[in-house]
Amino acid sequence: MPFTKTYFLCPTSDFISPPPKGPLSLGSIIRSTSAPQYPLNRASVVTVTDAFPPVVETDWRKTVSSETGLGLGVYAQFLQLATGGLPLGSEVNVEHSNKTSNTFAFDTVTTLAFEPTQEYVEEAVKAPAVQTWLREPRQKFALVSELFIVTGMKLVKGAKIKYSTSQSTMAKGNFGIDVTALGTTLGPKGYWTSTNDDATESNSESEFVFAFRVKRLRFGRRLKLEEYNKGAFMTVGGENDDDGCILVEDVDGATIRTAEAVPDVTENGNVYCIPA
Fold first, then answer.
1. Residues 6 or more apart in contact with residue 5 via CB below 8 angstroms
2. How open is the CA angle 50-54-56, to the nearest 5 degrees?
3. Range(s) of the domain holding residue 234
4. Do 149 and 214 form a contact (C-beta atoms < 8 A)?
5. What is the pLDDT of residues 150-187, one digit of tens each?
6. DSSP bridge partners of 261
7. Which residues, 6+ apart, have CB-to-CB distance to 1 below 8 Å?
8. How far apart are CA 148 and CA 217, in angstroms?
9. Terminal-residue alpha carbon distance, the chain
C-alpha cells in the first residue's frame, strides 16, 4: 500500500533552532512550505495545550536518491548545425544522466505534533501580522488565499548529513561526418565520457528542526483547514494515497451537512470527512 509523504524538509544550509529559541513552533503560520523560518505569527503564536506526547526515535537514518537520464538528440542536432548541415555518422549515441543521493543520520529524532481545533484556528488567525497579510490587495481581492499552519515538527540531535551529486555524459559510436559526395566518412570511431562528482558532508551535535508538517488554511467565503502534502519529502506511514474522501476541517463545520466526524488513527483524533 502506498503511503503519502507528509513532512517537509527544513532548510539545512542554515539550521533552525528548536522552540522556544527558534522561529518555528507548533501553531506557527507560514506563507510557504519552502520558507518555514519566517512565520507570520512568531511574536503571537497561540499556545498549544493539547499536543500529543512526544515520540523519540534513536539511530535514525534515511537516504533519498534519484536518477534522471536523457538521450541527447538535441545535442546531435546541434553538432549537425555546427558542421554546416553535414549529416553525422549514423551510429552516434549520446546519453546524459544526473544522480543525486542525500543521506540523513541522527542520534535521536523527537516528533512533536498536535491536531488544531476549530477554536484554535479562529484564535490563531487573529495574529496582527496574519491580519495585515490578509488586508494586502493581493489577498484582499483574491477569490481564495492560503497560508499554512505547522502541526508537526521533527527535532533532531547528533546529525550526520551527506549530499552527493554525479553528472555524466557518454557518447559512443561513429563521431565522423558523412560526406556523401566524396563517398567517405571523416572522423574517429570510439567513445567519450565525462563525469562530474561532488559530495558535501556536515555534522552537528546541536538540536535543530529537521522537518515539519502543515495543514493549509484557505481563506475564501469561509476559512477552511485542509490536509496538504504537495512537495513533501518524507512519509510517516499509515496514510493511503488513494483515500476515497477529502479531509476538511471547516471553521463553520456545522454548516456542512454531509460532513461526518470520524476517528482517524494516523491523526490521533477525529477529522471531518466529506465523501468525494
1. 229, 232, 233, 234, 235
2. 170
3. 3-275
4. yes
5. 999 999 999 998 888 888 877 766 555 555 555 555 55
6. 272
7. 240
8. 5
9. 20
C-alpha cell, 144: 481564495
Please, which contacts does 21-28 make with residues 24 or more away whose CB atoms are closer than 8 Å? 22/208, 22/209, 24/150, 24/153, 24/209, 24/212, 25/150, 25/153, 26/51, 26/112, 26/113, 26/114, 26/150, 26/151, 26/152, 26/153, 27/114, 27/116, 27/120, 27/124, 27/149, 27/150, 28/149, 28/150
Q: Give 36-83 pLDDT, tens digit per residue.
A: 999 999 999 999 999 999 999 999 998 878 777 766 554 555 555 555
pTM (global) more than 0.70: no
Of 183, 47, 27, nearest in space to 113 by CA: 27
Which string of DSSP letters, residue by residue, matches 178-231? EEGGGTEEES-EEEEEEEEEEEEEEEE-S-EEEEEEEEEEEESSSEEEEE--TT
Find, among 248, 220, 251, 28, the residue nearest to 119 by Cα. 251
Q: What's the domain count of the chain?
A: 1
Work out the number of other CB atoms within 10 angstroms of the CB of residue 258: 8
